[in-house]
Amino acid sequence: MKMFRRHRRLRKNQVIRDMVKETVLNRQDFIYPLFVVEGKNIKKEIPSLENNYHYSIDRLEEIVQEIKKSGVKSVILFGIPGYKDEVGTSAFEKDGIIQRAVRKLRELYPELYIITDVCMCEYTSHGHCGILHGHEVDNDETIKYIAKIAVSHAEAGADMVAPSDMMDGRVKAIRDALDENGFKDVSIMAYSAKYCSAFYGPFRDAADSAPKFGNRKGYQMDPANIREAMLEIEDDIKEGADIIMVKPAMPYLDVIRWAKDKFDVPVAAYNVSGEFAMVKAAAQAGLIDEKAVAEEMLTCIKRAGAGMIITYYALDICRWIKEENNY
Ligand code: PBG
């Protein structure tokens, strides 16, 4: 008699289901994006990112308490500066918004692992991720600035810098500059496969970083391409990236999987603002169970190969994990 396999045996109850589970979310998997603004006494909900806030430096302590309570160990910082100019000067000033935020966070929570997003779009008057020549972003000029920004973050005390500009050669420029300035232990997480995605919409509202003309197609990747993503990743690793990232996450699980299979450095994924906003909106419309969908989405991103996930759900998911595990 030809037998069939009884797959359902291993789904019989929660104990056995948990034992055969291939992907388990841990609190250390998550990185929380934190937005810091100039000004005083500001904690203001970001309209496009429900339950995420703009904090002024003097109120960072409140979110630090929440981060501690949730068990999240790491944040990635985004700054909204007091002024913008053509070359993004406020991105690399000693007392810029990120530099002060890093110092404050270090003081409030010394063990917090602080990652800084290194880019120019929040700091330039034109909203592009680099230095313009006419309407073109000048690659080789931009990477000098990108390196300068990274060094200023390291000087403030960042553990890791994460360039998101998608210029060629930026990882090498940053590594060289960090090493020359005595920051050989500051790591680089490269946004290597960063796609030109419409899923960044809510973030650009939150960070006031939308380009004032044109788009980012001249530097961010075409969503249609995956082999090109492997080239980007390969080059970033050769240039000195410690961790590579795929962004967005949910519609790009194949890219995460290819990256994980082909390369031996840790792979991160960015579950971006549009992915988060869609889940929130659908939940509010009564169409889905928010917690269940968020857990499923993040589990699948991890299953695809991401060892770490940047998500606006970081605090929630870590709280849920804590509750479910009773610790
Ligand atoms: C800066 C940057 C962006 C995001 C992270 N860093 C926006 C962009 O490239 O326009 C998007 C994050 C998100 O959507 O959650 N370059």
From TrEMBL:
* Residues annotated as binding 5-aminolevulinate 1: 204, 216
Pathway note: Porphyrin-containing compound metabolism; protoporphyrin-IX biosynthesis; coproporphyrinogen-III from 5-aminolevulinate: step 1/4
Cofactor(s) the protein requires to work = Zn(2+)
Query: Which CDD domains did the record assign?
Result: ALAD_PBGS
Residues annotated as binding Zn(2+) are 119, 121, 129
**What keywords tag this UniProt record?**
Heme biosynthesis, Lyase, Magnesium, Metal-binding, Porphyrin biosynthesis, Zinc
| Annotated binding of 5-aminolevulinate 2, by residue | 273, 312
User: Which reaction is the catalytic activity of this chain?
Assistant: 2 5-aminolevulinate = porphobilinogen + 2 H2O + H(+)
Q: Where is the signal peptide?
A: none
Keyword Transmembrane helix recorded? no
Question: Main EC class of this protein?
Answer: lyase
Task: Give EC number(s), comma-separated.
Answer: 4.2.1.24
Alphabetized GO MF terms:
porphobilinogen synthase activity; zinc ion binding
What NCBIfam families is this protein classified in? PRK09283.1
Quaternary state and partners of this protein? Homooctamer.
- Family designation: Belongs to the ALAD family.
Protein name as it appears in the record: Delta-aminolevulinic acid dehydratase
| Gene name in the database record | hemB
